Amino acid sequence: MRLIIFGPPGSGKGTYSAKLKEKLGIEKISTGDIFRAEVKKQSDLGKKVENYLKQGLLVPDEIVIEVVKNIIDKIKDNFILDGFPRTVKQAEWLLNYTKIDAVIKINVHDEILIEKISARRICSNPNCDGNYNIAFIDKVIDGIHYYLPPLLPKEDMKCDKCGSPLIQRDDDKPEVVKKRLEIYHQQTKPVEEFLRKSGVKFIEIWMNKEPEKIANEIIEKLKELKV
Q1: Does 2 participate in catalysis according to the annotation?
Q2: Is 121 among the residues known to form the active site?
Q3: What is the domain extent for residue 45?
Q4: Considering its fold, how many domains does the chain have in total?
Q5: CA nearest 78: which of 105, 95, 100, 96?
Q6: Which pLDDT tens digit goes with each residue over 89-123?
Q7: Which residues does 61 contact at the CB level (< 8 Å), separation at least 6?
Q8: Partner of 33 at 20 to 30 A CA spacing, among 5, 27, 51, 96?
Q9: Which residue out of 2, 28, 86, 121 is catalytically annotated?
């Protein structure tokens, strides 16, 4: 099984792909996670991509493709790509390099994304993956009812896992989020058109409820496609 999870920044791709990894036994390939880890280590790769991430810009195609190629070469099969491809050039390379069974497209309004992403808080300990969200969203937009409860730490602004203070990522600040969404609409949405024209199967789902429910809906839709 070779999948892509596709959607704007903050649409839950990382959360859903992590749950699909557990439920389906597939590997999660997240370029964002990889780059952020390399930045923390201040590796050669991390130094190359750090400024792009801080400014909410796309990392150059050549760098991203090389990273993904190396991982696919090791895994071969049973993976879900999170955050790749983000440009048509990346998508062209991917379809030439391997077969993709389905794309999972996450739909969500920009207004919800800005509110949700701006409320995300992560652990300040570079060796901890604590991840929280202080927003409680319960509203209807264009007939879609969003019910997204917060994910709060037990102690205010302290990580449950290690007790370190929680912080906001630079690329989660509202002004950067808006820029990231602009870039997504301008550069990444054409990727969807390219993938559809190439005949890749799509399933679509709204990011409007708890992650567990959405993950289960995705699995049901994949079964319907007989992926």
Answers
A1: no
A2: no
A3: 2-225
A4: 1
A5: 100
A6: 999 999 999 999 999 999 999 999 999 999 999 99
A7: 87, 89, 90, 93
A8: 96
A9: 86
* Predicted TM-score of the model (pTM): 0.83
The alpha-carbon radius of gyration of the chain (Å, integer) is 17
Residue ranges of E strands in 44-136 = 79-82, 102-107, 120-123, 131-133
Residue 38: half-sphere exposure toward Cβ, Cα within 13 Å: 19
Nearest-10 crossing angle of helices 110-118, 174-183: 140
> Which residues in the chain show pLDDT less than 50?
none
Q: What is the pLDDT, as a whole number, of residue 186?
A: 86
Q: Look at the block and give the residue holding tokens 């749950």.
A: 19
Which CATH number is 57's domain given? 3.40.50.300
Check if 120 is active-site: yes
Residue 169 is a catalytic residue = yes
What is the sign of the dihedral through the CA atoms of 73, 74, 76 and 77?
A: negative
pLDDT at 203: 96
Q: Is 23 part of the annotated catalytic residue set?
A: no
> Angle, nearest 10°, between helix axes 31-41 and 44-54?
110
pLDDT at 96: 96
Q: Which of 69, 139, 169, 178 is catalytic?
A: 169
Give the Cα separation of 206 and 179 in Å (integer): 22
Q: Which two tokens stand for residue 170?
A: 């630079």
